[in-house]
């Protein structure tokens, strides 16, 4: 059974006979997309973990792309009827949109086991454990025989609009050069599965020999990495023409470590 943001009002905190629960089937997976409190945040979805595995995309409360101006959402994207409905219950309805995208992307929507979304965001729960990460949505049941404990909370990030899946990488850059400068460092990944856009690894003071790390959620699964593009910029005219390079760049894919 897959629960697509099961309802919170009248169900949260009730006995298991009343609401969806992992005792209802051999395998129950849940996608939480609107689990902020109903009062005052108007969250429609249940927040506690109630399945064998519970996915909390983007933290489970506020989905990217749902904070848009209502007029643009209604007029540009979906036409009047679907756009109005989506605006009113955008977070709640993301659950079925993620699910339908998951059918097309069997390798997408990896959920990382983690104690909280903040810990996931900071990279504490990266990469996937030895047994791998389950895929949120249609292929979640491939993980059925790997569950070791009672409740498994899983976190991931998604895109703002279709296509929703993102693939998580840890990128570590060690700089080389003569002197420190202010500015930013961007990296793009190229691989057998496709290329990413540029992602910012750090900004501020850039010191040669220092190492900077960032976690990026890329819009493609790059597969085997074949090339990394390194760019830096210091945003203002600098008469000393500082030079900066990358001594090493390390890329780790969350999926297969």
TrEMBL record:
One of its GO terms (cellular component) is neuron projection. It is found in: Cell projection, Neuron projection; Secreted; Zymogen granule membrane. Residues 167-257 form the PLAT domain. Keywords: Cell projection, Cytoplasmic vesicle, Disulfide bond, Hydrolase, Lipid degradation, Lipid metabolism, Secreted. Pathway: Glycolipid metabolism; Glycerolipid metabolism; triacylglycerol degradation. The keyword DNA-binding does not apply. SUPFAM superfamilies: alpha/beta-Hydrolases, Lipase/lipooxygenase domain (PLAT/LH2 domain). SMART domains: LH2 (SM00308). Its main location: other. One of its GO terms (molecular function) is galactolipase activity. InterPro entries: AB_hydrolase_fold, Lipase, PLAT/LH2_dom, PLAT/LH2_dom_sf, TAG_lipase. It comes from the Eukaryota. Gene3D superfamilies: alpha/beta hydrolase, PLAT/LH2 domain. It catalyses: long chain 1,2-diacyl-3-O-[alpha-D-galactosyl-(1->6)-beta-D-galactosyl]-sn-glycerol + H2O = long chain acyl-3-O-[alpha-D-galactosyl-(1->6)-beta-D-galactosyl]-sn-glycerol + a fatty acid + H(+); 1-beta-D-galactosyl-2,3-didodecanoyl-sn-glycerol + H2O = 1-beta-D-galactosyl-dodecanoyl-sn-glycerol + dodecanoate + H(+); (9Z-octadecenoyl)-glycerol + H2O = glycerol + (9Z)-octadecenoate + H(+); a 1,2-diacyl-3-O-(beta-D-galactosyl)-sn-glycerol + 2 H2O = 3-beta-D-galactosyl-sn-glycerol + 2 a fatty acid + 2 H(+). It is a peripheral membrane protein. GO terms for biological process: lipid catabolic process. Its EC number is 3.1.1.26. Belongs to the AB hydrolase superfamily. Lipase family. This is Pancreatic lipase-related protein 2.
